[in-house]
Specification:
mainly beta; 0% helix; 45% strand
């Protein structure tokens, strides 16, 4: 039995984004949108603390749907 929009065999890619500022309002499961197009979801959010520099970073792991993203390779002729 399948419920909702669950896609079991859809290929995905993982991406990690690091923030130094607040991500207030972001939560696990939230959609990832780029210019209004949903390209994935937030998988996890964690805090990374550098004991040497005393800097704190927020690490957000995303699950991206490859069929929503295309990479165009351009060749420059000089």
């Amino acid at each position: 039995m399948i419920f909702g929009h669950i896609q079991f065999l859809t290929p995905t890619r993982k991406a990690v984004v690091v923030f130094q500022d607040s991500i207030n309002g972001l939560s696990v499961g939230a959609p990832v949108n780029f210019r209004g197009v949903k390209v994935g979801t937030v998988k996890s959010i964690s805090l990374c603390f550098d004991a040497l520099t005393h800097d704190a970073y927020i690490v957000v792991t995303l699950i991206l749907t490859p069929d929503k993203i295309r990479i165009i390779k351009r060749v420059l002729f000089i």
